[in-house]
Amino acid sequence: MSELANCVRCGDVFAKQTRNICPDCYKEEEEAFDKVYRFLRDRKNREATLDEINRATGVEKDLIIKFIKERRLRTSDFPKLAYPCERCGVDIVSGRICSQCSEEILDEWEHLEKQEQREKERKERQKIYYTLDKHRK
Length: 137
What we know:
Blueprint: E1 3-6, E2 13-16, H1 23-41, H2 50-57, H3 61-69, E3 83-84, E4 91-92, H4 99-126
Antiparallel strand pairs: 1-2, 3-4
């Protein structure tokens, strides 16, 4: 059963089934994909970069990146096709962040876990009560 939703591209209301964009925007995206794919299919354009594809086809970079992330355009077939890391902006060919940012995030995570563990141990020590036996000789 479909539900009503707003298209994330144009804002129009449509009956959402599997996509989060309306049929008109979907048709536009498919036309853009065909334009990009026809450009890249030409042997001389197989090593084109994201910027070169954008200039030659007029298709937005974000849409080309979406095609890559959906694996409709494979970076293994087009070796210079890369997009920016969402954290630092360096060019990558898969995922959302580069390996360096991934390592930094893991290091930060480990640091936070150690910090939380130390805080937990500190609170545990504060809960310990010592008593003196007054009747002891």
